[in-house]
Amino acid sequence: MRITEIRSSSLEIPATTTKQRALLSFFAVVVVAIALLDAKWRPLWFDELFTYYVSSEYSLRATLSALLLGADIHPPIDYLLRHISMSILGDTSVAFRLPSVLAVLAGLFAIYSYVRLRAPFIGAVAAFAFPLVTIAAPYMFEGRPYGVLFASAALSLVAWQRATLRLNNKRPLLALTAALTLGPFSHYFGVLNFVPIVMGESWRSMRRRQIDWGVVTSIATAGALLPLLLVFARNATSMQTGWWGRQFSLGEAIGFYHWLFDYSIVPLLFAFVLVSGVLSLGRGRLERTPPLDVPSHEIVGAIAFCLTPMWCYLLARAYVHALTPRFSIATVVGVAVLVGYAIAAASATSKKRAIAIVAVIALLGIVRLVRVGESLRGVPAVPSAFLEAVSSSQLVVAFDASHAFLEYTHYEPELARARFVYPMDPDTAMAISGVNTSEIALLGLSRIVKLNVASYKAFLDTHDEFLVLYDPNSPHALLPALLRDNVCLELVRRIDDKLLFHANRLNGCRRSP
Questions:
Q1: Fewest C-beta atoms under 10 Å: which of 38, 62, 152, 253?
Q2: Comparing C-alpha atoms, which of 333, 281, 304 is closest to residue 150?
Q3: What is the DSSP string of 87-113?
């Protein structure tokens, strides 16, 4: 691959043939269709329910008010998009998750457009398909802001590319400002989209020995809007002390790459072996394809996105004090661009081999989406074994499983009103387990949704006998607190990966838990 610095005035955007457009469109339609089925079949889970309830408020203004009350902690754009979607299409899981489907699709097309400007169609399609074999794929049908965060990174990159090529057209500059603004206004870590753009533009300025004040102004304008987020961010800061993801290291941040690309290891290894084999055949098979003319600043921008886990670590260490792998989903954008360029370069050696590699990546992406949907199809939101166990008793069910409490309450509202309770408060949870994220979150959500959330002491003072649903795979404080206070616990039943106990404060135990 030959990396050059070229004059924008000499650039012509390559044409895409009718057959190429048809192929890309067909692939996109298949991906969207499968994602919509996945969105329909998958029950809403704990995190999504926060987004759902906030987005389900009766108006856009009420949605914003719910966020300001602390019902959830993310910036407003994602909620507003889902509110609009459900207002138009109805209160369904598909309508709720549709913005994620469209956002990831927009991100895929943005990556395609970024690569297609410099590379043949085969490389651009490879860049389009690659995210489907990464962690970005399941966020296509999840009702949280990570699909929009992914899209914002890709849109920022392509908007910056087009802004550097403008002649007398100011629309690319406006698009750049909008794309950079979208990131942090959908997720706070979207502010890191600025880093690759600033690095790429700085490199471009050094190479040109001239500052592009139009691009700089666009970036600065987007940055000037960031203080508007402070009113929403104050709710997120309330979780910093007891957040489950507050312990992290540089090594763990580097490990994010495994989480992001675990599923893509097989196709990447396949591609590496195949391309290496082709290159080893010698120059006798080389096709007469011109080398890629990729400006060095565009390579810098893509590489900087590949380093997003490092930027996430630095931001978390300096200010946020909380970090999880999904915050670094923008990494996929940078890697997809480089994969597209690499396969485009390989196509110069053997176009047929390059097509085969892309076909494998696309097929594996589709298979992954199908397998996820099939695994979710027909799975009950509330296990029948739990309903059977609960129906044989009239006791209150205390949840030592925040995820199950909110999910079961959502799907069994009548039973929840009468018998479900989450008897844990932030102070007790912090003292017992050192983590109180769920307790703060549920209290915040209860400001707009009626939830049976109680303090531990008040619940124990009013209940001598009750059932306890315990999940050993999630942060828990209720069971250790009950054992600390000598409450008798007897195992009633195993329900999947959870345990149902009978709790009694007054009588002795017949057997230990």
A1: 62
A2: 333
A3: HHH-SSHHHHHHHHHHHHHHHHHHHHH
